[in-house]
Amino acid sequence: MPDEPAAPPALADLPGARGQVRGVTETLRTGLHGLWLLPDRLVATGEADELYLRALSGTRRHIDVPSTADAELPMPAEETTSRPARDAGYGPDTDQLPYLDQYDDGFDLGWETDGHAPAIPAPRPAGTVPQRDLAARIAKELSAPADDVATWLATPDDGMPPPVIGIRAWAEPDGGPVRGAGIEGLHRSLSAAVRAAGLPPGERPRLFVVARLRDLPDGFPDELHQDSGATAVHWWWDALGRLDVSTAVASCLAAARTAGRDGDSSGERVRRQLTAETVVEICGPDLELAHGLALGWDGRQRTLDAALRRCLAAAPPVAGGTSAAPARMGARRRPGTDVREAWSGGAIAAWEGRLRPHPGTWYPVGPAAELTGDARARLAALVAQAQQRVVLPWIEEARQRLAVRSLSHLKRPVESVVEDYIERPAPHLRDRPERAFLEIQVGELLYAHRQGAVALPGHEAQLLRLLVKVRNILSHRSVLHDATLDEFRDELSRSDLRTS
Q1: Which of 95, 276, 483, 485 is 20 to 30 A from 463 via CA?
Q2: CA–CA separation, 18 vs 21, rounded Å?
Q3: Model pTM greater than 0.85?
Q4: How far is Cα 368 from Cα 31, in angstroms, rounded to an integer?
Q5: What is the pLDDT of residues 94-143, one digit of tens each?
Q6: Cα–Cα distance, 109 to 98 (Å, whole number)
Q7: Which segments within 94-186 are labelled E, that is strand?
Q8: 482-499 and 373-406 helices cross at what angle (nearest 10)?
């Protein structure tokens, strides 16, 4: 059986993600609170938990505050001991009254016992008690008093380094009309306690909150951003670059080469590079979409439309964006306020320093959707950019080889050819005409060949004409179709065989 495609590397292992984790950890080590805002999809896939744990584990002393579900604790055994059953004759509310053993204040309330023993309030049923208060859960982890955990944190007496308190905001209950109000209140109370205690940065307890945009009150991240002396706000913004996505795509495509389904000729290397680069250029920082397209597309231009539609239909839908790119990007490290909802829903991202709408916002999803002219033009532009990145270096390499071979096929003195056919010879090579000739471009070399100044053999002339054709197509930002690409790859492979 053929080998299965390799699984993509974990998000937290990619260079861009590691760099952001490292930056978050460094700010926590300097004594600042940390707020890390992530898109919704990272939380849905569980990748946010891994990023959170990687950053938290890099601090010297830390606690991971459990969620309300994880913090449900069994009742102590002494409280579950059975007691005498209460008498139903005192009514349904007697279990809400305190039991005062052998107490008599001398007043007669008029209750008739009718010979029955006093009713004893029923114990709480055995089971679990949810620890829903955030401060109470933190106090439990620290073995601290729950009534004022912020003051206790700011005045430690255990000789231990101050802790970093990690909180997953998406796991917190709503706790009221404003989601995240508990986190906001804890941050304010702890900050006030630290200021009152006059703690230097290295001795301060810190909060490390990882959240989606909707997990916090409106305006709270911007408020913390203004207080940069106490809190560092990080956004998952331009976190992944071309290197990250290329690494993930390459791992998906590596199994085909390992299984021996392709060779190592120049043409095959061009094919693999074009497939990988086209996937990266189309998908941008969406690793899930890039993984699906890398495995579901055969690299042919005529099958790209159907493969992209299938992958978009299989991926989670994006939310909050439109097909039009916003006019304003925002700061380099955080999205502008007008694109934050779209960023949170996955509809837009920062990619290599530019705004990139997700393909799901402008390309048809599913086989029945109509392909508009705008979508076709956008896809063609991305494919052309990918082809330029891959093919132009191969053209340059082939040009250099042809220039070297052409020196032995000159029909005129090399000084004359340089003067007549090279438009702008390098000034520092004026007294070195043979070296200057090696800088001749493919168009100039083809013109010299047609004018009889260079007599190239037929196969070399054919390769040269193809190089000029491909270069001209790419220079006009047009897409190389399958037939042209096949011819280009075949000619490169044959040229390799002639020189090997």
Answers
A1: 276
A2: 5
A3: no
A4: 55
A5: 444 444 444 444 544 444 444 544 444 444 343 333 345 888 899 889 88
A6: 16
A7: 128-129, 164-168
A8: 20
Cα distance between residue 18 and residue 191, in whole Å: 29
AA identity, residue 492: L
What number of helices (H) and strands (E) belong to the chain?
Answer: 18, 9
* Tokens at 2, concatenated: 């053929």
Helix, coil or strand: residue 335: strand
- Nearest-angstrom CA–CA distance, 178 and 156: 31
Q: Tell me the residue ranges of DSSP E strands in 263-310.
A: none
Compute the chain's Rg from CA coordinates.
35
CB 304 within 8 A of CB 383: yes
Do the Cβ atoms of 102 and 120 come closer than 8 Å? Answer: no
Cβ–Cβ under 8 Å, residues 219 and 233: no
What is d(CA 136, CA 144) in angstroms, rounded to the nearest whole number? Answer: 9
- One-letter amino acid at 226 equals Q
Contact between 33 and 191 (Cβ < 8 Å): yes
Which sign does the torsion angle of CA 9, 10, 14, 16 carry? positive
Please tell me the distance from the alpha carbon of residue 40 to that of residue 455, in angstroms, as a whole number: 63
Q: Which long-range contacts (CB under 8 A, 24 or more apart) does 135-142 make?
A: 135/186, 137/65, 137/66, 137/68, 137/71, 138/63, 138/65, 138/165, 138/186, 140/71, 140/73, 141/63, 141/65, 141/66, 142/63
Q: Which residues are within 8 A (CB) of 197 and not within 5 positions of it... i.e. 6 or more apart?
A: 154, 155
Q: Are 282 and 305 in contact (CB under 8 A)?
A: no
**Contact criterion met (CB below 8 Å) for 201 and 30:** yes
Please provide the size of the chain in residues. 500
Answer yes or no: are the C-beta atoms of 347 and 320 closer than 8 Å.
Answer: yes
For 424-481, give the DSSP string.
S--GGGTT-HHHHHTT--HHHHHHHHHTTSB---HHHHHHHHHHHHHHHHHHTTPPPP
Structure tokens at 19: 């760099």
Task: State which residues of the chain have pLDDT below 70.
Answer: 1-7, 70-132, 158, 175-176, 255-263, 322-331, 500
Helix 458-475 / helix 373-406 crossing angle, nearest 10 deg = 150
C-alpha–C-alpha distance, residues 373 and 74, integer Å: 63
How many other C-beta atoms can be found within 10 angstroms of the C-beta atom of residue 67?
A: 16
